[in-house]
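seq as requested:
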Amino acid sequence: MNGKHARRWALVLGPLLLVASGVLVLRWLSVPDPRKLPEPFREQLASRVVDALEHDPTFRAEPGHPDLWPVCVASVFGVAPDSADTVDEVRTIYTQVDCKWLSEADVAKGNAGSVTDPLFGASMPIAVRLGPPVTYQTPESGEGIYPDSIRRIFPKPLQAAAFSEHDPSMMNALDERIMHLMASSAPSPSHS
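struct tokens:
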């Protein structure tokens, strides 16, 4: 190719490459970031999640022991629809939960010192659909299965939060909640 033809191709391809790279940059910028939810709204949503899970017979039976009672805390990182401003507008809550299943007999005794090692615990991201009826989806465990189930359950802008490492302060909040429940011996839903 001689110099004349090379300049023509450069004049044609240059703008095309510029447009193509601009489209890629705009597409990258258009991927929405998760909405920052106001703290009072997040607290209301977390309370709703905890109440729903602790009273749901299916979730309660999760560890396979009918005499266990779940105590949970939640940290909300997203909602659907994303534009919801009140709990009544929310259809799905995306949250991280920490739960421990305790014996109802231990809770009834009111002795916080007797429950140092709960029979079952879980820390996981979860999608709670408020219904009615309330339903929830948790990621499946297993090599290669867990990441795929996160991608299936959580919208793309929320997947990083669903994959994020566990916040140790949630476990502290759960332990404090259990101690409070044991001291009062009157189980009631709460949140973190």
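The two ends are 69 Å apart (CA to CA).
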